[in-house]
């Protein structure tokens, strides 16, 4: 397509393989499946902690400061869980 067409194709593409090996597509697919699983885990962790802490704080089971600390702790857990994509094995 030439230089002009290839820039437009790069902007519209959802996945770009940087090498001329079709096997890289399979690696990208496996990575996307791992990312989806980790995103689901992170949503479950964060929403679970927020719901539990809101209910516990609303019923007076825990003070507000403990609820806030639990929320910040869950944020840290979610960030560390996401880092598994960077340091994990990309099979």
Arithmetic mean of pLDDT: 85
| Structure annotation, total helices | 4
Shape descriptor reads: elongated
> What is the succession of H and E elements?
HHHH
Residue runs with pLDDT of under 50 for 5 or more positions: 1-5
Structural class: mainly alpha
Which percent range fits the helix content?
over 70%
Number of domains: 1
> What quaternary form is this?
single chain
Major sheet description: none
Q: How large a portion of the residues is in β-strands, by DSSP E? A: under 5%
- Say how many strands there are: 0
Radius of gyration: 20 Å
- Terminal-residue CA separation: 33 Å
Account of the protein in words:
- The protein has 91 residues and is mainly α.
- The chain is built from four helices and no strands.
- Helix 2 (23-58) packs antiparallel against helix 3 (64-82).
- Mean pLDDT is 85; it is low at 1-5.
